Amino acid sequence: MALQAGIVGLPNVGKSTLFNALTAAKAEAANYPFCTIEPNVGIVAVPDPRLEQIHTKIETEKIVPAAVEIVDIAGLVRGAHEGEGLGNQFLGHIRATDAILQVVRCFDDPDVTHVDGTIDPLRDIETIGIELIFADLDTAERRSAKYAKIATGGDKEAKVHASVAAKAVALLHAGKPVRAGEFVGEEADALKAAQFITAKPVLYVCNVDEQGLKADNEYVKKVRTHAATENAGVVVLCAKLEAEIAELDPADRAGFLADLGIDEPGLNRLARETYRLLGLETYFTAGPKEIRAWTIHRGDKAPQAAGVIHSDFERGFIRAEVYSVESLLKHGTEAAMRAAGVLRVEGKEYVVQDGDVMHFRFNV
Questions:
Q1: CA dist., res. 63 & res. 296, Å (int)
Q2: pLDDT, average across residues 41-69
Q3: Percentage of the chain surpassing pLDDT 90?
Q4: What is the arithmetic mean of pLDDT over 185-210?
Q5: CA distance 156 to 147
Q6: Three-state SS annotation for 26-53
Q7: For residues 132 and 143, what is the distance between their CA atoms, to the nearest angstrom?
Q8: For the residues of 129-147, what is the DSSP string, one character each?
Q9: What sign for the dihedral angle of Cα 166, 169, 173, 174?
Q10: CB 188: neighbour CB atoms within 10 A?
């Protein structure tokens, strides 16, 4: 499931440092060391302690975590919607992503000048927001005119598209992102087709100095307050420090983190929050060849989950044997779980739960 989150940010906020830290990081026991798959795209493993918990009961040759793609989107400057910077190229890249990670500078450093001269994270958020709103407004107005014309002929689908575009225009004219509106049923499908940038979920990444990791500074507090008004997430990390951690050997990393009083790298939190932001959940398969985390959308049913492994699994789905990691840890083996009645057989209507361990039976 190639879902992508795009990293955006103004110049000198630490976006490049953060992306470089991501691409330098190595995920132990993973088939996805964070690696670049294009010059500006990387895959980052989503840390999940349940993989190792399963491994304590099931011997395996390899462990494969879930992953998300992170896209470094360059070219955002004031006036991007009018073609400044990389302009349209930037807008094309960000439109193709599923979520936005906005890096916001939340530290003072006289040696690193800000493009606007002073540090003000809310101004930075507003600058990027305005660019994205103007870009969407152009799209929304064109779609509104196009589908309103088609709808006059009685086309029901065109009426839905026209309604969604008109709602978007109203929101954008009011200075609000499209995600602030309410779109359900057919409108939600039409909204997805429109690919409005401001309809995408947002995670604010507060880039702080080392002191800022101990407690929220005033900049971070402002970002949290703003994020709460638009139901966006917030992650606090120090990009400079993350770059140093990523360069360390795994054996040295734990000691370095302990000296800093940190439980885990900030990149781990970023990966998990990105995963959550995209509405994703994990189920596992476990056997002697591999223990693997598979990515599904929240609410997916068993056949859809099976299809993530292979389309044949979904097409020929018969049933799934399901148990929880907690049951495995308690009973120790599948035989013991079956005897205790906690290994269940589920059919096509079963909604997969985050953390399920599943074996699929299928016939093609």
A1: 18
A2: 91
A3: 57
A4: 93
A5: 10
A6: CCCCCCCCCEEEECCEEEEECCCHHHHH
A7: 16
A8: HHHHHHHHHHHHHHHHHHH
A9: positive
A10: 12
pTM: 0.81
C-alpha distances out from residue 116 to 11, 123, 233, 351, Å: 10, 9, 25, 49
283, 352 in Cβ contact below 8 A? yes
CB atoms within 10 A of CB 32: 19
User: What is the C-alpha to C-alpha distance for residues 44 and 104, in angstroms, rounded to an integer?
Assistant: 21
HSE value, Cβ hemisphere, 13 Å, CA-based, for 206: 31
Task: Output the pLDDT for position 26.
Answer: 45
Question: β-strand 280-286 against 290-297: which pairing, if any?
Answer: antiparallel
In the numeric block, the tokens 């906005």 are attached to 102
- pLDDT above 70 covers a percentage of the chain that reads 91
Q: Which amino acid is it at 137?
A: L
- Which of 248, 293, 249 has its CA nearest to residue 275? 293
The per-residue pLDDT of the chain, averaged, comes to 88
